[in-house]
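Re-run with default settings, no changes from the original entry. Doing this only to confirm the output is reproducible before filing.
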Amino acid sequence: MRIVRGTLNRVELIGWVGAEPDVKNIGKDNKVCSLNISTKRMTGRTNGVMQVESEWMTVELWDRLADRCIKSVHRGSRVMVLGSLLTRTWEDRESGQRRYRTIVRAEECLVLSASESEDTHEEVEDPESATA
């Protein structure tokens, strides 16, 4: 976590990965993995029924974190991401307008559950019941 003299830029997300990770090689030695993560938030109640909205965030994982992500994160995985916000700006080639995009730059990513489409259930033998 990076704290710079009286400021804090910290993001903590727990959500579901909406698509397979998008991986790109940047130059010779750098790699970036982009995830789209969905979280839910309560927007209020209507006639006693809770109203929920989905929020989608783009998360970038770099280098070694990207390598780990490629191996263990898939569409449908539930993940916890710790990182910071990063806003990129550019000029639109067609309109000439300044554009902005805010992403989460991940520092840590933990897979909380695998994709339901994967068969990740392994039988683990109880050492107490094992015969020698």
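The chain has one domain: 16-113. Residues 16-113 form a domain with the OB fold (Dihydrolipoamide Acetyltransferase, E2P) fold (CATH 2.40.50.140).
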